[in-house]
Write a structure and sequence with these properties.
Elements lengths: L11 E2 L25 E11 L12 E7 L2 E4 L10 E9 L7 E8 L6 E9 L16 E6 L5 E14 L9 E2 L8 H7 L2 E4 L3 E12 L12 E7 L2 E4 L11 E11 L6 E10 L2 E10 L6 E2 L8 E4 L4 E4 L2 E4 L5 E9 L28 E9 L7 E3 L2 E3 L2 E7 L2 E4 L10 E10 L5 E8 L15 E9 L11 E2 L10
Parallel strand pairs: 5-10, 18-22
Antiparallel strand pairs: 1-31, 2-5, 2-9, 3-4, 3-6, 6-7, 8-9, 11-27, 12-15, 12-22, 13-14, 13-16, 16-17, 19-22, 20-21, 23-28, 24-25, 26-27, 26-29, 29-30
Length: 481
Amino acid sequence: MQRPPQEDFLLKETKPHLGGGKVMGDKLTSTYDLVEQMQYLYVRVVKAKDLPGKDVTGSLDPYVEVRLGNYKGTTRHFEKQSNPEWSQVFAFSKDRIQASVLEVNVKDKDFIKDDFVGCVMFDLNDIPKRVPPDSPLAPQWYRLEDRHGNKVKGELMLAVWMGTQADEAFPESWHSDSAAVTGADALATIRSKVYLSPKLWYLRVNVIEAQDLIPGDRSRFPEVYVKAILGNQVLRTRVSMSKTINPMWNEDLMFVAAEPFEEPLILSVEDRVAPNKDEVLGRCAIPLQYIDRRLDHRLINSKWYNLEKHIIVEGEKKKEIKFASRIHMRLYLEGGYHVLDESTHYSSDLRPTAKQLWKSSIGVLELGILNAHGILPMKAKDGRATTDAYCVAKYGQKWVRTRTIIDSFAPKWNEQYTWEVFDPCTVINIGVFDNCHLQGGDKSGGAKDSRIGKVRIRLSTLETGRVYTHSYPLLVLHPTG
C-alpha cells in the first residue's frame, strides 16, 4: 500500500467563512463567530386544542407529522386526547431542502391507517429569519385546514423560523440529517451535550493502631493488617510488627474520592491465620460526608472508631461475639492539591480541589469545531462501509460532545464552545469517535464507540486575541504502538 504524502500529516492553514463572513486575525464579536454558519428551518410544535374525534368511539389519538419534501419528523402520540401538548422542535438543514412548501399535519394514530385530521401549510419564502441575540420567536395559533384549503375544527400552536446552529433550540431538536436513526436511546447519543466532571478529592487514611482485638485462636500471636475499600479501590497496610491484641501501624493510605459521595469508606481489621486464610476481627463503615476537609497544612485530629461485632454461624445457631475493639485513625479529605486524572504532560487543569484556593482566570478559550475530511470507514452497515462521527473536547472540568453526523467521511459539525483558562501551561484534547449506538437500539448499551483519532493543542503556543484557522492531522495510536 502506498503511503500518503508527508504533507498530509502537517498543520495546514485554512480559510473558512467564519460567522457567515471571513475573519482573519482580529475577532468578530457575535455568538458562533468561530464556525461557519449553517442555516436550519426550525418548526416548534407546542400544542393543539379542540381537535375533532375521528374513531367510531369519537375519541382521538393525535400526533403531528412535519413534512418537507422527502423528510418527515413525527411527534409522539397521545391516547384519547383532544387538547394534546407536545413541545417538540424539528430542524431541517437548508442544504437538504428540496421543497417549497412546509406541511404540518395533525393525524390520528390507528391500527390500520392513520386518519388525517387537518394541516397547516407554509410557503418557505414567507418564513421569517431569526437573528440572535433576538429573543426566540413566540409560537402562535393556526386554524387547521383540510386538503383543499377549507377551515376545519381544531387549532395548532406553532412557531416556524429560519435560524442557525447558534439557536438555543438546536441541541434539543430532531434533525432531518439523522432522520434514519430510530430508538430513544440512539437519539439521545447523537445530540450535542456539555458535561461537567465530578469534583475529585484525595482521601487520606492514616491508620495508627487498634485496641482490644479478639482473635479466634488465642494460642498464637495474631498477624494483623487493615484492609480499606472505597468503591473499587482496595488498599492494605502491612502486617503489624507488634504481634499482640493491640497492634500498631502508623501507615498512610491514599484514595481518590469523587463528589457526590455515595459509597462509604469500609475498613476491616484482619488476622492472617494461614497463608491463604484471613479472619475478620472487626469492621467499620465511615460515610465520607462526615470526614473533615483540609485546605492547608493544619493538623487534623485523630479519632477512635468502634469496630463492629461480627457473627459466627455454628450450624443454624448464630452466636454473637460482643466486644469493644476499636481502631485509631486520622482521616481527612485533602483539598489543597489537584487530583490528576490526566497524564501530567497533557493536563488541562492544575487547580486544587478547594475552590477558595483558585487563582482568578486569565482569559477564555474559544473553540470552533468545523469539520473533518478523509475519515476512514469504521464499520459496515447494510453491506457498505460507513462512519457516524462525533467529537469530544475536554479541558478542565468541562467536556463537550458534538452531535453525531450520520454516514459521512467528511462530517461538518460547526459547533462552538468556550472554557475559562486559569493556567497557560495546559493542553486541550479533541477526540473524534465513531458512534456505535445507532443500530436501531438493538446493540445499545453493549456497543463501545471506536476511536478515530485525536488532536492535542498546547495553550502556551497560542497568542491572545488571535483566531487560528488550521486543519490538524488526527493522531491515531495503534495497539502495535
